[in-house]
Amino acid sequence: MYKIGVIGDKDSVLGFKALGLAVFPVTEPAEAERLIKKMADEYAIIYITEQVAKDVVSTIELYKDRMLPAIIPIPGNQGSLGIGMGEVKKSVERAVGADIIFQE
Amino acid sequence: MAVMRVNPTRMELTRLKKRLAVARRGHKLLKDKRDEMMKKFLELVRSNKELREKVEKMLMEAHASFLIARAVLSTEVLEEALMLPKESVSLEVSTENIMSVDVPVLDYKTKNNDSGDIFPYGFISTSGELDGAIATLSEVLPHMLELARKEKAAQLLAQEIEKTRRRVNALEYVMIPQLTETIKYITMKLDETERGNLTRLMKVKDMMLEQAHQFEAKLYQSDGA
Fold first, then answer.
1. How far is CA B37 from CA A45, A92, A95, B142, in A?
2. Disulfide check for B136: which of B28, B54, B62, B97 has CB 3.0–4.6 Å away?
């Protein structure tokens, strides 16, 4: 039995609390890093706002090749930074060797 | 391509030939695996992209109305309203095998089955924007879970494809040429020894014939004398 967690600035994540997700408001990147490491065993999905995710990329990278947890960047209330899409693009590049999906 | 440092013997040759057969077979299998995985991956990543666009759009809507609610309500009221959630979500995780890659399958259960009854607060002290934000969020949640599953699967598949591609290339451009070269080298070396042997035998035979002739000649001489 796993839980779902949300990490981000308070205003972006508070709403998820009403849905029964575990909400962790953070302000410092170091705090987010510590949280992710602590949550890794208990949580199957960790949503993280892109504003926070951009500072803890290396920590997120650690869990990329593991089956659990799935750390998924979502846009915060300041809009999307394109990190989530960038990740999808990156995995295409990793698999195919070149980006063949996102070229416009 | 460098030839391996092996003794050019017949035994080594058979051993290498066996290895080459295995390498060829492995190469073919891995190539097939890579192609199939790539097909699956591209399918997955396309739907992943669409889903992400949709989720991001919906989340932005939810954020917009949440921001207004936040502006209208005081922090205390807002926090109090959301402090004790009615709903709780738990995940059941099983694994699915896509081309020998284990990807998670996420099944989520909510405690509350009534999707209209998700608001953990009374409506009297909060504004309508908050209701809207929560409603949109609860609508987007299933999509977010689907997104998590797809993205994780795509990441894991990408990793496996990268690994398989490396193996295919290593076999195709290093192992197989090296083995072929070495086999050729041993065959040529063995042939060369064979030829050397043959010439030596012929030479020995000549020498022996020569000796025999001389012996016979001597015998006649002594007979005549």
1. 24, 12, 10, 27
2. B62
